[in-house]
Write a structure and sequence with these properties.
alpha+beta, seven-stranded mixed β-sheet, 19 strands
């Protein structure tokens, strides 16, 4: 899914994002395209964009391609500046952008993380089959809509004081479980166990803290969603079985949201600080939106500590939402969530910067890996994976639109070696929100999807129009590029049957 283009900090003027000379994109093979550094002065590494010919010719924006080139100017960047198959224009980095920067001499950039810090997706499997819940599908959707607050600025039932806020920032998903929102095993099936280390609430502004106090357990708006889905296809039966996916028609629930207003404010706060850092450290950058500071500088460390707070807040948020959904299913179906088999498959983050170790020029190197609108996809055997998933690789969750399928994939060795273990995070927008609203009214979208067996409930007709299926790229084509490039491999495909939008 694409990120909603965020409100930019008024203190920072936007700069032209296109390099002075025309971009020269060359095809490397069926699924890779390159911008050679030797053709574009200032680029420290080549740019690589993943995609099929159809995606590149039909959907690659010139502005997004310029951002791939601009990111290649960042001090300390290694490998390539990368764009995933769902790439589109963002703030500083393209959405679908990946970059690894040396932790000892490279930089960290809030534009490489984005405003909705740790926006991510979690997938819940069940023991239910679609035929069992079909008569109660309307009631299930309505109960979820009632139970999980959604909409711009909407608050939830979980209220924080200063002590609880700091606990959320430091402990993430584990805090939510300790408060009764979930099962003890949930964090083990969450990326980073739902908690980044080094989170420091003192690095967060008072304004950001204030915005965090009542939004745990809320979905938000824009492209965030909660979907009841049915397994449509299984591509890798062994991996699917390990992940709890057993047959077609099996019911699953997908939750997509992030750190809400808290994460947005953290990003906003640090953009101005990073502009000052650019001048302080004498960086020559082609776009002011790439404001950055050395990873090991005071500014860089402070941003990473604040970002970790927002990331942990997002994991706690999705954990609480999952608990609310489990309770909603239990009320409508008359059985506890444990008996319904509502176990967490996995939770993956996008919009995050993480300190990781990767092999560069034959040597293991500590990098600050930026994934903006991109998902971690670690391969089989990686020690950071839950023991159950090490034989098959990390579960990767890639949503499509509310009218198409979503994919469960697994990380691959080749992708780990070429993209720092990264892959796409969704289908990616094909139309702006304004263009989508002109295409058709939200009521038409709801009626059309109901005719296809997909129930939709949202806060506004305009919001549903913005998120209509035609506003997104073909997720099947995106996955074809991901698989063809060896970034991750398909395990199963789910189709939506009931969709809740903010």
């Amino acid at each position: 899914m694409s990120k909603r283009r965020p409100r930019q900090a008024p203190r920072v003027a936007s700069a032209p994002t296109s390099p002075q000379r025309p971009l020269r994109l060359k095809r490397l093979d069926e699924f890779r395209w390159t911008l050679r550094a030797e053709d574009h002065p200032g680029m420290r590494v080549d740019g690589v964009v993943y995609g099929t010919g159809r995606l590149i010719d039909g959907h690659l924006e010139e502005g997004a391609l310029a951002q791939v080139a601009n990111v290649a100017h960042l001090p300390g960047i290694v490998g390539h500046s990368m764009g995933m198959p769902d790439i589109h224009f963002g703030y500083g980095f393209p959405i679908g952008g990946v970059a690894g920067l040396r932790a000892d001499e490279g930089v960290v950039s809030p534009g490489g993380v984005g405003y909705d810090i740790n926006c991510g997706v979690r997938l819940v499997r069940t023991d239910l089959r679609l035929a069992e819940i079909q008569p109660k599908l309307d009631a299930l959707l309505n109960e979820c809509y009632t139970s999980v607050p959604s909409g711009v600025g909407e608050g939830g039932a979980v209220r924080l004081n200063d002590a609880r806020f700091e606990a959320v920032c430091v402990r993430g998903a584990e805090w939510a479980v300790s408060q009764g929102f979930g099962w003890s095993e949930d964090p083990s099936h969450t990326e980073a166990r739902g908690r980044l280390p080094d989170a420091d609430p003192d690095a967060v502004s008072d304004r950001a803290r204030k915005r965090a106090m009542d939004q745990v357990g809320t979905l938000g708006a824009g492209n965030h969603f909660l979907e009841i889905q049915a397994v449509d296809e299984i591509f890798d039966a062994q991996a699917a079985s390990v992940m709890g996916i057993e047959e077609r028609g099996q019911v699953a629930v997908m939750i997509h949201c992030g750190s809400r207003g808290f994460g947005h404010q953290v990003c906003d706060d640090f953009i101005a600080l990073m502009q000052q850092a650019v001048r302080k450290y004498g960086f020559d950058l082609p776009d002011r939106q790439l404001g950055c500071a050395p990873v090991r500088s005071d500014e860089g460390r402070k941003y990473l500590r604040a970002m970790a707070c927002a990331a942990n807040y997002a994991w706690a948020n999705r954990q609480v939402i999952m608990h609310l959904v489990r309770d909603a299913f239990a009320r409508i179906l008359g059985a506890p969530a444990e008996r319904l088999g509502m176990a967490l498959v996995y939770d993956v983050a996008h919009n995050i910067a993480k300190i990781e170790r990767h092999v560069i020029d034959g040597r293991e190197t500590e990098l600050c890996v930026h994934r903006k609108g991109a998902t971690r996809a670690f391969p089989p055997g990686h020690p950071e994976l839950p023991e159950a998933y090490r034989p098959v690789g990390q579960p990767v969750i890639v949503p499509g639109s509310m009218g198409s399928g979503s994919y469960l994939l697994a990380g691959a060795r080749h992708g780990f070696e070429t993209t720092f273990g990264s892959t796409c995070h969704g289908a990616g927008r094909a139309l702006s929100r304004t263009a989508a609203k002109k295409l058709r009214h939200g009521r038409e979208v709801i009626d059309e999807l109901r005719g296809r067996g997909i129930l939709v409930r949202g806060g506004s007709a305009a919001g549903i129009a913005e998120e209509q299926p035609d506003a997104y790229k073909d997720v099947d084509e995106v996955i074809r590029a991901v698989e063809g490039a060896g970034l991750s491999r398909p395990v199963a495909r789910c189709r939506p049957v009931a969709v809740m939008k903010g």
